[in-house]
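Q: Two folds, back to back.
A: First:
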Amino acid sequence: MELTIAAGLASSTLLLSNLASILLASSRLKRRHAIAPPDGAQPVSIIVPSRGVEPFTQETLQRAFSLDWPRYELIFCVAHAEDAVVRLIDAAIARHPNVPARLLIGDDRISANPKLNNCVKGWQAARHDWVILADSNVLMPKDYVQHLVAAWRPDTGLVCSTPIGSRPDGFWAEVECAFLNTLQARWQYAGEALGLGFAQGKSMLWNKPMLDANGGIQALAAEIAEDAAATKLVNGLGLHVRLVASPFQQPLGQRTFAEIWSRQARWARLRRVTFPLFFAPEILTGAVVPLIFALIAAASAGVGLPTTALCVLAVAYVPECLLARSKGWYLSPRSITAMIVRDVMLPAIWARGWLGGAVEWRGNAMTIHSKAITELEEIA
């Protein structure tokens, strides 16, 4: 009897925590709506670190040149002149002579983070006090800048957006949507609602004078992940990380299991190194642990296991689907299957996060130990 009660209580607590996170996230999120530029809009510099050609590169480039903001400049940063994306960026700049844009080539080795190294020259060249660091695979809406600026408050040190997976091509891309959207984005917005906002490096709006007065972009080299360093820097100043109310899309296209595993294992390892106390309870997210407790309780009480499993899965995944539907995120008949596969992967990814060894980051092999990056090797 005691086992039944304890296991049932544990399962119920975890399922209620899952539901609470969905409700908290939903309270912070808004369905996308257009925002007009404010009167007296400040000029903005947008730095886009780029590497390689991806399926949606042409479209994301076009979106960057089509923003509805009175004054902005685009600064594209590429580490190597022979990169195939250089030709596409040059062509896009030529097609849009009315948008101030530059391509800067070079690699400033200030850290073991290749993306941050790529951004240094752009930060130094930025002409305006408001600077956005935007990953090249962000699908910017016309009111991209407006959404970032609208989230800024007097006590804000940084505004950012988690990526929302869209346009998946194939089942494994739908699994990545399940990771990005109703799991990772949901918990990030729930954290913000609880006063535990943390940065996401896809889109980051900085006040340049503020960051320059506190070490400049080089300060983001304090951690292997620039968003982790940004979170700690902003919190150390007594300021807050804010999230946009309507996060921006990242079109996915095709994905493979190996790509998803590599990416999620890398992120898990980085979270483990930079925020171990927050990473430790991640094993409790998803449906696997509450399902195990529920089945233990059902077996002890003589209740049917299939019925118990169906009830747990319904309580876990129906609210996730409702969250995606209410916010206009990707949802399909295969989404629940994708969520189940995601949750089956989660314990293995969590365990991988505690181990050393190499992970891959944008073509770079990294060996990450608990206190530092000890190896960074460019893959030929």
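A: Second:
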Amino acid sequence: MTPILVTGAAGGTQGGTGRRVAETLLRAGLPVRAFVRGDDARAAELKDLGAEIALGDLREIRAVTPALQDVRRAYFTYPVAAGMLDAAAVFAAVAHQSGLERVVAVSQLGSDPQAGTPHMRRHWVAEQLLDRAGIGAVHLRAAVFFENLRVAIGDTGELRLPLGSPDTVLPLIAGADVADVGAGVLCADTPVAPVQWLAGEIMTVGEAAAIFDVPYVNVDPEEWAASAMARYRDDVVVEHLTHLWTMFAAIGSGHELFRVTESIEEFTGRPPRTLRDFVDPG
């Protein structure tokens, strides 16, 4: 059996979907080649679980080429950071040459050439690159991860975001649900629709803050961006999130994309996880 390549397999603070996909596939007895940036403790843990480790930078063709050798299915994810389009272009080119049959790629719910954030527009371009490579791309267009709200709270005891009214509506999802759908699509033997919309819960920011048991505080976008830079230390993350939160504030009470979607239950056999489950898993 050929290995399934999983990028982002070390995990991270933005949902860690690659790590969960790798662990899910390994538990199912499937061979996994885990693509990681560094040979650290996280890579060692994956190796102990039975994964083959591929080291490198997804933007570097000399690293991606051997990682995709003898691979027919792959999971592609890249953090909200500079270089996502470079990584998608390299991956698409090498995957086309390698004869990949299916790639499951993490995208964003509002991916569109006219989307409200620059990074959503970049994701739409990345989708086009993967589609044109003829590698059976399936795009997971995911809502806002629960993890984003937890990181926003940090140790402040407040949910401080430029979302305007506490009645501003957010489409949300557990990173674990995105990963579980990704693993399900990778394992599916039948054709799968090329776009899977993923939203697990729709609620106002005020309701979300109440579940975290913290107050919601609306802040000026420029003030939020300045404070966020100290926390995230990444221009692309701050750019994306500032546009994202202000976009939701402008939308206000909802959008046609703001609905719980069927893909989660279709590929996992269970209802979506709720924010309350995420905050209090016990």
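Q: And?
A: The chain has twelve helices and twelve strands.
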